[in-house]
């Protein structure tokens, strides 16, 4: 089971936000002595003319794709025709971000989710053919998740925690009148994973520890029957769910039973036997099928970069595609008849764009223009996967971005720490990273011990050692940067969000290594955080405690690694950025951290967004944050004397 704590799509979106200076000039040209041409730098407003696009549901006619994009400044739903004609905006939210789920199978109604101000209490909505919207999961304090469609196309499955805030039940909704039936009452504290296409089976998971879990099966045709254990095993083995096969005869699941990495295995629901489905030298991170079951799409996390394999199950061969633009293939989806497919292409220097391809032809068509045409790709930088040795000789992977300014002068640098614990910095477009690099900062995105993607041994090396060995990885990352002849060894800072914000504050509090720190909604009081986790995390509370510590028994250690109690030790400038509605890292944590730093006489700047949570989804807020990042770095890192 991947570490779920402190990691969300919104947090990733927030940390992909661009940053730039408050200089009124949009573009600056600097000499490049190597190429004898000028390269350009851009401000935050220019970077945020880039559009983020999410979703790839194809409608029943096969002529349009349902996406969310933030062109308007906030995520709304759009209909993108596959013939390349202009997209149509379907919603007009100005307050809450709208994230699309899917079209209805037989018409152009669609489902989407939204929360309030980043509180993560998502409700599920339907927008009907006349444009009216209906909350399918009304009520206060609940969280709802779209699960899947029934193969009969007349119903769909939704999980909510409205009955018991700790656990999610499963409801089956009728597409005609939206009446619903409770089909699984979760009284035993399982995590609900997936429903079979025929609606007969539900697969559940049970977390025993952060390295040991099981899968269970419920047959909804059998009343009052206990869930059936599917993964009898001994020792520490983790299991998670990918999907059911389209004929509802197999369950695809992940397991690390046979080595360091997750493999894909298929469980036969009739015979009860499992067989290997797919393995690689890295984690298999997802696998799913086209709507008609012809194609299987499998993703592998290969050294912080996703590699896709698309298999034609009719002839047991890999799907042949025409030459694609450079970058990673993502978000593949097929039409009902599998005659066409849509997908995204993303690279370090280009944001995701949506494409369509008719199978059997040699052409592809681009459906979106996500990039800002004023930003030229040659002015951006491709990251390089590098490795360095930490204090104990352990090899630590990272992604290094070298700014073009480094060909002229030595440049300041930042160690950037991902969220989690157990997240991963990955290749791909990040407006924030590109913006800082474009403005002269080297960025090294560290995958410190405890990061996912490098095997289960590496993953568990930080268990109950947070703020200790992983912090030393951050310090040794700095030492590696100091060996590079193009980095200014005296101007190195640290930056991160969520758990990365915690390690940033730990680095600033418990070491004197870094000139500045930028803490973006980082944990600073582990005792309070672990005592105030949202109720709907109950199913994996034990896993959190195994990793981080139980506040009932490990309170002293958690106190000792919490920067808020030692804030007067911080001696170098810090910027703290926080969402007022954050349910994971409560605003009071950042309030108290700021006051603790100030009590020691050290400069700290503090930026709070009243309408955001654990991640910033509104463009204006992301621009404000980005301007603040660069203004702070330019003042306290770039311009500091040696």
Topology:
Elements (H helix, E strand, L loop, with lengths): L8 H7 L11 E6 L4 E6 L1 H4 L5 E6 L5 E6 L6 E6 L6 E2 L9 E5 L6 E5 L8 E5 L5 E3 L8 E6 L5 E10 L2 E8 L5 E5 L6 E5 L5 E9 L2 E8 L8 E2 L9 E6 L5 E6 L7 E6 L5 E5 L4 E7 L5 E7 L4 E7 L4 E2 L9 E7 L5 E8 L2 E9 L5 E3 L17 E6 L5 E7 L9 E7 L13 H8 L3 E5 L9 H4 L9 H14 L4 E11 L1 H12 L6 E4 L5 H6 L9 H8 L6 H6 L13 E6 L7 H13 L4 E6 L9 H20 L4
Parallel strand pairs: 33-34, 33-35, 35-36, 36-37, 37-38
Antiparallel strand pairs: 1-2, 3-4, 4-5, 5-6, 7-8, 8-9, 9-10, 11-12, 12-13, 13-14, 15-16, 16-17, 17-18, 19-20, 20-21, 21-22, 23-24, 24-25, 25-26, 27-28, 28-29, 29-30, 31-32, 32-34
Structural account:
With 642 residues, this protein is an alpha+beta fold. Helices cover 16% and strands 36% of the residues. The protein is built from 11 helices and 38 strands. The strands form 9 sheets. The protein has an 8-stranded mixed sheet with strand order 31-32-34-33-35-36-37-38, with helices on both faces. Strand 3 and strand 4 (64-69) form a beta hairpin. The radius of gyration is 24 Å and the shape is globular. It starts with 8 loop residues before the first helix and ends with a helix.
- What is the strand content? 35-45%
Helix content: 10-25%
First CA to last CA: what distance?
45 Å
Given the structure, what is the number of helices?
Answer: 11
How many individual β-strands?
38
Globular, elongated, flat, extended or rod-shaped: what is the shape? globular
Radius of gyration: 24 Å
Mean pLDDT: 92
Sketch the major β-sheet.
Answer: 8 strands, mixed
Class based on secondary structure composition and strand pairing: alpha+beta
Q: Kindly report the spatial arrangement of strands forming the biggest sheet.
A: 31-32-34-33-35-36-37-38
Residue runs with pLDDT of under 50 for 5 or more positions: 1-37
